[in-house]
Amino acid sequence: MGWPALLLLLLCAVRVRGLYFHIGETEKRCFIEEIPDETMVIGNYRTQMWDKQKEVFLPSTPGLGMHVEVKDPEGKVVLSRQYGSEGRFTFTSHTPGDHQICLHSNSTRMVLFAGGRLRVHLDIQVGEHANNYPEIAAKDKLTELQLRARQLLDQVEQIQKEQDYQRYREERFRLTSESTNQRVLWWSITQTVILILTGIWQMRHLKSFFEAKKLV
Fold first, then answer.
1. Residues 25 and 68 both lie in one domain
2. Is Transmembrane helix one of the keywords (predicted)?
3. Which of 71, 110, 103 lies closest to 88 in space, CA to CA?
4. Phi and psi of 214, rounded to 5°?
5. Burial class (CB in 10 A: 0-12, 13-18, 19+), 26
6. pTM
7. Residues 46, 157 contacting (CB under 8 angstroms)
8. Closest C-alpha among 71, 69, 147, 63 to residue 104
């Protein structure tokens, strides 16, 4: 594999999501993230309250509560925990597919101080981008070259997981297509049999009618 192709694969492995959104009191906002199995995910968030007088979003008070819930593709709860006005959540996927990440505030302070409006800044990092390499280098006493080699190995491992996940999706799609084609085939056969039986019944009915009228 040439360097251009390798660089393209490394770029495809980048899985970072940064966004912000607005929610009301106890309103839940969910996001879907496609994640391969055995992949670490780190989410960082911070909240801002709407100031009616200044008409701007200001940093939230420490007492504001934010609940984070993560479900795997089978609907099982992977993470369910209460955090503060800003925080960091981490989980590892064990089933490949769409994971649902939901956040909501269960604090009534939004009504008193924010007019029910809250802005949430959310950053989701998937795979090797969730690793804190400066911390790893300091802990394991790695040189710059060793750290770079570690990063490349992690990227290659993440690419392998992505490829395995794509093969998993292709296999599921193939099985679904085969099942659909088989159902269509049996439905066509059933329709053909019904048409033949209907034709035979109509012919016998017409024959009996003509015989009764002594036309044949």
1. yes
2. yes
3. 103
4. 55, 40
5. middle
6. 0.61
7. no
8. 69
